[in-house]
Predict the 3D structure of the following.
Amino acid sequence: MAEVTHSLDGRYYTDPKVFEIEQNGVLAETWQFAGHAATIPNAGDYFTFQLAGEDLFCIRGRDGDIQCFYNVCQHRAHQLVQGDGNAKVLVCPYHAWSYGLDGKLMAGPNIKSVRGFEKSEICLTSVKIENMHGFIFANLDPNAKPMEDWFPNVRDELAAHVPDIDRLKPVEWVEIPENCNWKVSIENYSECYHCTLNHPTFSTGVVKPETYDIQPQGYCLRHTTESQQLDNMSYPIDLNANEYAGVYSSWFLWPMFSFQVYPGNVLNTYHWRAIDADHVVVWRGWYSIDGAPSQVMKDLAKQDRETTVEEDIHLVESVQKGLKSRGYVPGPLVVDPACGVNSEHSILALQKWMREGVDR
């Protein structure tokens, strides 16, 4: 018989010192979502984002390639850009040092007067990125292994489940603040043990919970289930469209991103940004081919926001309060050897990665 494994102690979710360890460790040394390539189609287009407490930006170069840099001037450390936009040249607002789209220093007031000043030696500090079907991921670890090593087969599986994925553009972002630790929100996403009780619309109008399973795939948690019967579906789907039209699939990429493909090949995403030990912001993204309007997608996004998303907010915020209670004693995880929807084998894997990120 397998040994009983208890859930993590409350301190993993509530202690600011644990969060600090994560900021300097696991959150800085993993692949995390930066943004979508379709939002910066032209040379000089850029967007800013945060990762592990760092301010970063992605920018498209004149050669069409996208690069990522720390958002800090190499002169006196002022931020270079804000929000998103387009720049022919990156000019620091503090002293007007200017950089090319490749990050190399071009000019600065009176720098020629400085003996030994080698302009060619100064460049913005770059960040490692990868492009997965238009989704740009960043990793602050310059020696990070490729995403394929972390998340084997995900790139190919996505292409199979989402026809024309490389033509998708984001059409809607929903920002969802949650008063809980990022790991509480991640755990909630990573099991369906709670689905039937707490998500009636999802469980009766989207998927068949009895077919739900989640399995580790490298540092990915792979969710699979069948769609509901057609006459029970809360939105229309064409089962004959392709091989995967009648399934729900999700690829959660540790630590803070998930691709979800709803029945009917509708792609949507979650990405998390940890704020502090007690707060996280979740972004829900929806996509369509060439960004074209889709009433089905629009209705599904609205349904999702008003049901599953809203339901989960109440769950995770209650859990965060409970984790701070002196009465909380971590109970055993329900790990069924047969796996399935009423098993927390996915949480067992997830909490192992969580421990690795803190206890090292």
